[in-house]
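Action item from last week, closing it out:
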Amino acid sequence: MTPLSILLSFFPTVNLILVGVSFFYTCHAPGIASILSLLFSLYGLPVLAYRVHHLFYPIQEGIAYLRAKGYSPWWGSHQIQAIYIAIPALEAILRLIPGAFSLWLRLWGAKVGKQVYWTPHIEIADRSLLEIGDRVVFGHRVGIYPHVIKPKKDDLILYVKRIKIGNDVFVGAGSNLTAGVSISDGTFLPAITNVHPNQKV
């Protein structure tokens, strides 16, 4: 791992510490400033860190090796997003507010259309690697994973590719979408469907 990889592996810990400090500050001195500091540590700091990171180290689609000598931009971006994977309730709250979660994903760099319905229990691994059309419905416990990791000899192969979903698509409950998946307009994806890398539906 490079020094930057090691440094960013501590980002989730630092983020949690800042959230804890902001929470106690809000309890001790409730007010606009303390509430804003809590919201910033929960939602603002990771997005800001990701955008700065992406400016210098954009995620490259394709195949890479995680144990290679060079720095992996995907690794850094994944660490920055780790708090939302570890504590899914943080984003579940946003999905209860119409339009809020789609706006949230756009802040990360995703392309999200109009009138997209997100059920509360959805897992997204890489928020920036999504292209979603209009009037898409996601069922309960859908998993969206624009990366795949596979062991090979003494290394780990990382494959990263954007997931694209057209207009008027229904993704059934318990379905999993992986790297490079492309779903055409008007598709009805049955419940518990596993769509494999680069598969077109």
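Closing note: Residues 32-56 form the longest helix (25 residues).
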